[in-house]
Amino acid sequence: MSAIITFCVMFAFWIVMSGKFDLFHLTMGLLSSGLVTWLSHDLLFSGHTKKFGGLMVEIGRFLRYVVWLSWQIVIANIHIAGLALSPQAREIMDPHVVSFKTVLKTDFARFVLANSITLTPGTVTIRIQDDTFYVHAITAQSAGDLAGAGDGPGEMERWVAWVFEGGSR
Amino acid sequence: MLNAVVIFLMVSGFMLFFATTVGLLRFPDFYTRVHAAGKGDTLSTALLLAGLIIYYLQDFSGEALLTAVKLSLIVFFVFLASPTATHAIIDAGYEAKVPYWTKRKPSADGEPYPGPERRREDRQI
Amino acid sequence: MEQFLISIGVALLLLMLMSLFRVVAGPTVIDRILGVNVIGIKTVVLIIIVGILDGRVEMFIDIALAYALLNFITTIAAARFYQRQSQPAAADAEEAKTAPSAPPTAENPPAGKEGSHA
Fold first, then answer.
1. A77, A84, A136 ranked by CB distance to B22: nearest
2. C42 φ, ψ (degrees, to nearest 5)
3. What pLDDT is recorded for position C11?
């Protein structure tokens, strides 16, 4: 299953990159994407043993997550630009490190969560160690957004858990 | 009409990059500079490239469409690669104990950093 | 419209020169890597602007894509190399056994790093 998806991604990439549709170039594309798939089919989608339907649901949810994330990215950029251009930047800033335990199980979900944290307002992931995320927050408010209410996972973590591991949002 | 959209996208991307550069130059320590660089890069690059894509697609053809797809691939790649590179950089800096700047006092409840004057200067870089 | 693209390109170049100050002056090596990364990402945009002005985007786009990939890999490699080099060899062997060091707390300074003054 993962081999087929890898092959399709590789071949689409070949077509976009070459831009030629004659027999010679397509055959070369088939051969080379087949070779790459044979060598590395367990790299790109490792740990994905789901059926095709489940994958489609996951992709649909992921697209909705991307829409939400894009809005967060815009907010993050306005936030950091305002902070950089404001005259009292050093008074507003309150850099510190927060850590929290994650509920996510798979590596890919953690990767997505870490990249999302880096892209959203005022937080950068430093490292993931065992189950704990270490996050550098630039203002006190941004750290508060991350942790969510009480001890439960924050809004973003609930989104990622909903996308990749089912469950409620 | 389309030119107005292009100019708007590219000027806003440029303003974001300007703010990124100002942040990179005036923020007090390495970690806050990573904040400025890691966030400003992604959206400003995406906005600038989106403006260029629209400008390029004005005289439409099959080849232009292929080039536009390639440009969108660059945007996608930047969105994937920039947070990863940011993470690699800040992790390396954290491991190397780069001095930091904070206003917080040391506290008993697991606050990782001591106060602002006591920097971890056990290793000069 | 070409005037606008040229002015955006020149302004980007000026901002990249400003970022170069962080590369030259940056107090630590890792600051320099950060500045180089920022300059590299904007170079991709600059290459495409040059390509559009030149009327040969389909050639410049491949250069830009390769440059973006190369910039990413260079940044990762430089950061990892610097991280490896900044750890003393003795602590390295010790850390291989235990998990990577947790962020130190105020009362609990990081163990096994005392020999790192050299």
1. A84
2. -75, -25
3. 93
Of B32, B91, B94, the CB nearest to A95: B32
C114 located within any domain: no
Contact list in A for residue B36 (CB cut-off 8 A) is: 80, 84
d(CA C30, CA B101): 16
Mean pLDDT on A63-88: 86
Average pLDDT, chain A: 78
Residue C95: inside a domain: no
Buried/exposed A64-76: b ≥16 CB within 10 Å, e otherwise: ebeeebeebbeeb
> Is residue A65 a contact partner of residue A46, using CB atoms and an 8 Å limit?
no
Please give the tally of structural domains in chain C: 1
Q: C30 lies in which domain range?
A: 2-88
Instruction: Give C96 or C25, the one with higher predicted confidence.
Output: C25
Q: Check residue C107 and give its pLDDT.
A: 45
Contacts of B71 in chain A (CB under 8 A): none
CB contact under 8 A, A84 and B44: no
Residues in chain B where the model's pLDDT stays below 50 = 106-125
Within 8 A of C69 by CB-CB distance, chain B residues are 77
Average the pLDDT over C57-80 and give the result.
90
| Chain A, nearest residue to C105 by Cα | A97
B26 touches chain A (CB under 8 A): yes
| H helix or E strand, kind and range, residue A101 | strand A96-101
Does residue A49 or residue C81 have the better pLDDT? C81
Q: Kindly tell me the burial class for residue A159, based on how many C-beta atoms sit within 10 Å of its own C-beta (0-12, 13-18, 19 or more).
A: buried
Instruction: Judge whether C39 lies within some domain.
Output: yes
Minimal C-alpha gap between B41 and chain C (Å): 7
Q: Write the pLDDT tens digit of every residue in A11-66.
A: 888 888 887 788 898 999 999 999 988 888 777 666 555 566 777 787 888 888 88
Identify which of A17, A99, A129 has the shortest CB distance to residue C100. Answer: A129
Q: What CA–CA distance (Å, rounded) separates C46 from C49? A: 5
Neighbours of chain A (3+ CB pairs under 8 A): B, C
**Subunit contact C61:B67, Cβ cutoff 8 A:** yes
Task: Look at A2-11, A86-95, C84-93 and tell me which has the smallest mean pLDDT.
Answer: C84-93
Tell me, yes or no, whether C55 lies in a domain: yes
pLDDT score of A20: 79
> What is the token pair recorded at A143?
């750290």
